[in-house]
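Anyone opening a protein record will find just a pair of labelled lines. A complete record is shown below as an example.
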Amino acid sequence: MKMTRLVFMPVLLLALLSLAVAASEKHVRERMQMLIPGAVPDAVVETPVDGVYEVRYGTQILYMSADGKYVFQGNLVDTETRTNLTESSRTLARQQVVADLDESRMVIYGANGETRHVVTVFTDADCTFCRRMHAEMPEINDLGITIRYLLFPRTGVDSPSYRKAVSIWCADDQHHAMDEAKLGREIPAKSCDNPVQEHMALGEQLGVQGTPALVLENGQMLPGYRPVNELAAILEQLSKR
């Protein structure tokens, strides 16, 4: 009888703790929905900090106390491991978002031969460093790297860069139009149903602040141009983890 009781007590405590955690998560979720009406958190999880929960909306991360009294935003860093826990959560969120993207709504330059890596790139046809990266596309593809372009004209809707992005998408030959635009040449103006504004909204959601912005398969974001050899080295290192 005594042995049964000793075994039962830890199980009971664990069950009660699980119920308490579930109750706190539910309270935090409800409290956040009161503070931000119409927005439903994608995830509410405990953090390593007692009494603090992470609340995730896409790649946007907020923190709330278990009692729902305090909410704050910023980077949560583990000082012992020097790990940015907030960025780790953002990376996971980006990975999920990128994995779910519809490739029929992208301009894709496929790897030559076996695909070793896939990189999703927010690009602007008028961006100098985007053009520099695009000039290396044959080398990139020869290394087994597929590039999935999302159109992100930095100057916004109805700007010349935006209209150029739409024309690229609507061209009979998207690759030819992209190649010509990235060389600074004029391309025929075209109009059709297009995903350019979807791409722009997605970029803002993922925290894109400039182009090119590269999102790797694990969700890591690399801002700015990376020479082909540097990019290949990063991808190879990533594949070994």
In short: DSSP finds eight helices and eleven strands in the chain. The domain at 22-94 is CATH 3.10.450.70 (Nuclear Transport Factor 2; Chain: A,).
